[in-house]
Design goal:
single chain, about 550 residues, 5-stranded parallel sheet
Length: about 550
């Protein structure tokens, strides 16, 4: 035994489990009267927020909820959703933030699969939840209703208790406990499940804390940021940002509805410094009217992930004066776990070349041990030549525990000691990773591989194109050819021939879409274009999205 192992063991003084719950405790102690939450005319400081989280934890405890129990919430980006990210795990329970855009059948599956004991629901989604509870086989679920003065719809209470009354039943002096083990589960998130049942991704306290700290590091986030909730908090727990904002004692500016008017209004009113969103939301801002953009603070820091951002969108953000950071990740790795780190010398390049560099997925986060591209058959790293394709893989603390009740898929996903993403990419000579496509989105035409992302990037550069998606369409001669679905900017007009001519200027002939379809594109609640729906429309052989 080494001398460094003698009498130097772990004890309560030198080793404690990591948990993001420590962030709100510190914010309340150090900055008790600093603003924590804004929601319309509502204002709440950090001490009050912490006290309400303690009451929530206590109220759950008094109902017999504790370690290993699931508490599901179906809430928009409102103050109770912020509180849920602390109060629920402070009781020892696991937070299951449900996708508010799903139908009752999908919600019913999640409630049943996750064995929810408590459900907290906003009136906007009460009828969906009511139907889901009727469909599901779970019994004796405690349903708690939220009341939000900013909601003007006709949603009705469906539960036995109101949220405020439930909090008042909690003990304000309740002594909540940190997890005994940082591997304890903190959250359950379901993947989007386009066919079949979604998978339940389980997060641990250590991963939630390291993910949050890494987001702070990647963004060089100062104290007291003013953060606008354009990203749904149900999506990978808002990429860990409920915990991030507590760690920095910032302001959560809540937003029930995401559109250009509400976003720009909130930025102007509250002096927003940071926000996160999928490319489609950033695209809304880029393409908004000049009147809406007047008076917007300069230097707003925007984080983009969720799909490979087209270079044209990156250019548009820079032109608006926004500082865009491109990150990459998946639900299984707490949202973003890789970042396209910018270099000062890039500033000397023209905007087009700079945008192309910033569109890469980059390198691993500080606290994720590694991200690379491997041949999934040999598990060897591909050469950094910018050409050889492999699969992006991660390993480290910011990786899920696994899929709930699905050991087989968990083991397959972690084969070889790495998390397999399913994303195909190359490594550039500078070590930066660049996605070429999802494995199921590669179009094979006449034996040649075509990256749908490459074709989409060209389409986005047409001034009339608002959103673009390219999928495979069966072809009797070539097997498959690219089919482009386009959403056109309001007030613009363009023909199929003009789009094809534009593509011919920038792409090899076999990559040019043979079919152009105009119309609104189906999107998920987080702004991702639903390619599986488009594959169905194109009658693609790859229409089944697994």
């Amino acid at each position: 035994m080494s001398m460094y192992e003698q009498g130097l063991g772990q004890n309560a003084a030198n080793h404690t489990p990591m948990s993001p719950l420590s962030f709100i405790e510190r914010a309340a102690k150090v900055y008790p009267r600093r603003l924590a939450i804004v929601h319309g005319s509502f204002r709440q400081d950090w001490l009050t927020t912490y006290q309400r989280c303690i009451r929530l934890a206590s109220a759950l405890h008094l109902k017999g909820i504790g370690k290993g129990d699931t508490v599901a919430v179906m809430l928009p980006n409102t103050p109770p959703m912020v509180e849920a990210h602390f109060g629920i795990p402070m009781s020892g329970a696991v937070l299951n933030a449900l996708n508010t855009r799903l139908d009752p059948e999908a919600i019913a599956f999640m409630l049943e699969h996750g064995e929810a004991k408590v459900v907290i629901v906003d009136p906007e989604f009460s009828q969906t939840m009511k139907k889901a509870l009727e469909i599901s086989k779970i019994k004796d679920v405690l349903v708690i209703d939220i009341s939000d003065p900013l909601y003007t719809g006709d949603g009705q209470a469906i539960g036995a208790l109101g949220y405020e009354a439930f909090l008042q039943s909690g003990d304000p002096d309740y002594v909540w406990q940190y997890p005994k083990d940082e591997w304890d589960s903190i959250c359950l998130n379901y993947t989007s499940g386009t066919t079949g049942n979604p998978k339940g991704v389980v997060y641990h306290h250590r991963g939630a804390m390291t993910g949050a700290i890494s987001n702070i590091l990647e963004w060089d986030m100062p104290k007291h940021p003013i953060y606008l909730w354009t990203l749904p908090m149900f999506h990978c727990n808002g990429w860990t940002f409920p915990w991030v904002i507590a760690a920095r004692a910032g302001v959560n500016v809540c937003l029930r509805k995401v559109d250009a008017v509400n976003i720009f209004s909130a930025m102007k009113e509250h002096g927003v410094t940071h926000y996160c969103a999928a490319p489609i939301v950033h695209g809304l801002l880029v393409n908004a009217s000049s009147e809406l953009k007047q008076g917007v603070p300069k230097g707003v820091k925007a984080m983009v992930a969720g799909a490979a951002p087209p270079a044209a969108m990156i250019e548009g953000m820079e032109t608006m004066g926004f500082d865009l950071l491109h990150v990459y990740g998946l639900t299984e790795i707490y949202g973003p776990a890789a970042v396209c780190v910018k270099h000062e010398e890039w500033d000397l390049l023209d905007i087009g070349e700079r945008a192309n560099l910033n569109a890469r997925q980059g390198v691993s986060y500080h606290l994720e041990q590694a991200m690379t591209v491997m041949d999934p058959e040999t598990m060897k790293e591909v050469p950094a030549d910018g050409v050889t394709m492999g699969e992006i893989m991660f390993r480290g603390n910011m990786t899920m525990k696994g899929y709930l009740k699905n050991e087989k898929t968990t083991n397959e996903t972690f084969a070889g000691g790495w998390f397999h993403t399913g994303d195909l990419a190359v490594i550039h000579p500078d070590g930066y990773v660049k996605i070429k496509d999802r494995s199921k989105d590669i179009i094979i035409s006449g034996g040649e591989n075509i990256s749908s992302i490459e074709v989409e990037d060209v389409l986005y550069r047409h001034p009339a194109v608002m959103a673009a998606a390219v999928v495979a369409k069966p072809d009797p001669k070539w097997g498959e050819t690219p089919c482009a679905f386009l959403e056109i900017k309001e007030g613009s007009q363009v023909t199929e021939a003009q789009i094809i001519e534009h593509c011919k200027l920038h792409l090899a002939g076999f990559k040019v879409p043979r079919t152009i379809v105009f119309g609104d594109l189906p999107k998920t609640s987080t702004g991702k274009i639903q390619k599986f729906e488009l594959r169905k429309r194109a009658d693609s052989a790859k229409a089944i999205d697994v």
